[in-house]
């Protein structure tokens, strides 16, 4: 399945907003089967910070592991945030 | 003749916003070496600013050299002494909701004036710093709740300040041996903090530093009696003559 992050907003910057988005996704969007692939589509997102991404992507990564697929993006803040999260793991 | 070319470039950038070297070559009709000599001189005088690194470089008009005695001074007073006599009420974001609304507006304003890469990067940096204040001080503000958030797009400056517990207090929770404010800033800006205490917080300033350097911006961050200054690729930690109990950040872009 594919999650379009722009449906959570174009400016994704705070921890509480990231956490709220994750809880909503877990309840209503994410598949129950952890073997299903989950694609994250960043199209339409303008600002992504490590705080928001850590609250949203980190728990999904823990649950779905290699089945979490981050689709490519040219946005500077998305690229920088994803690189940064990799660095601090 | 050379001065005329310099003035022409400054006037063009002031009127039209960011331009690439290629666009400036077309506009000035001079050779590339002559253009880069001019740009170097103008940057040395503080009349223009270079943002980004090759192949994505833009030059902007900069009025850092113009008289600027008041911008931010009232926030500095507030950050150091709690003197809010000169603070406009609209600068204070008491809650995160208010900050988020103003941050959304900042993003829209930045998009109108600057290229997308710069607009998104500056918004991400300001968002990370402003939200950090709420993440680390919620329910634990020193006296005034919330943050001051000043945006001046003409002077290409953003100032954020809080009357929270400061960086040393946060860092000591994960590194109890941290001796002083300067050490705390050095850790916050350069070392990856692992483990969850209770969450993986405390790494946001490294993201800020990385993006300030990558985009050739500048930042001055005060906490306690220490400062961290990042300009281009240089990062310096210094003792400050000001005591800022919470934090104060000045971003120039």
From TrEMBL, chain B:
Superkingdom assignment: Bacteria
Spans traversing the lipid bilayer: none
Residue ranges the record marks as coiled coil: none
The protein, known as: HTH arsR-type domain-containing protein
Organism per entry: Candidatus Magasanikbacteria bacterium RIFOXYD2_FULL_41_14
């Amino acid at each position: 399945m594919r999650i379009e992050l722009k449906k959570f907003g174009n400016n994704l910057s705070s921890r509480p907003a990231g956490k709220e988005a994750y809880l909503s996704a877990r309840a209503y969007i994410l598949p129950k089967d952890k073997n299903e692939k989950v694609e994250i589509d960043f199209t339409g997102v303008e600002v992504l910070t490590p705080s928001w991404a850590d609250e949203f992507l980190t728990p999904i990564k823990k649950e779905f592991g290699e089945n979490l697929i981050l689709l490519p993006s040219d946005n500077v803040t998305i690229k920088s945030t994803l690189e940064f999260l990799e660095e601090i793991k | 003749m050379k001065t005329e070319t310099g003035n022409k470039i400054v006037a063009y950038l002031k009127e039209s916003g960011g331009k690439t070297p290629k666009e400036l070559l077309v506009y000035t009709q001079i050779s590339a070496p002559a253009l880069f000599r001019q740009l170097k001189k103008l940057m040395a005088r503080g009349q223009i600013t270079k943002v980004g690194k090759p192949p994505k470089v833009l030059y902007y008009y900069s009025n850092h050299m113009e008289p600027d005695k008041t911008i931010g001074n009232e926030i500095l007073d507030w950050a150091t002494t709690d003197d809010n006599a000169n603070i406009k009420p609209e600068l204070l974001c008491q809650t995160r909701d208010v900050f988020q609304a103003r941050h959304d507006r900042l993003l829209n304003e930045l998009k109108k004036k600057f290229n997308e890469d710069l607009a998104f990067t500056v918004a991400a940096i300001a968002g990370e710093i402003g939200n950090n204040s709420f993440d680390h001080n919620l329910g634990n503000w020193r006296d005034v709740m919330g943050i001051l958030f000043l945006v001046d797009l003409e002077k290409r400056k953003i100032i954020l300040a809080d009357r929270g517990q400061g960086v040393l207090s946060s860092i000591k929770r994960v590194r109890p041996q941290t001796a002083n404010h300067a050490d705390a800033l050095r850790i916050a800006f350069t070392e990856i903090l692992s483990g969850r205490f209770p969450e993986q917080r405390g790494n946001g300033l490294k993201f800020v530093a990385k993006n300030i350097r990558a985009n050739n911006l500048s930042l001055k961050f005060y906490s306690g009696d220490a400062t961290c200054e990042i300009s281009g690729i240089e990062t310096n930690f210094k003792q400050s003559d000001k005591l800022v109990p919470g934090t104060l950040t000045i971003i120039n872009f």
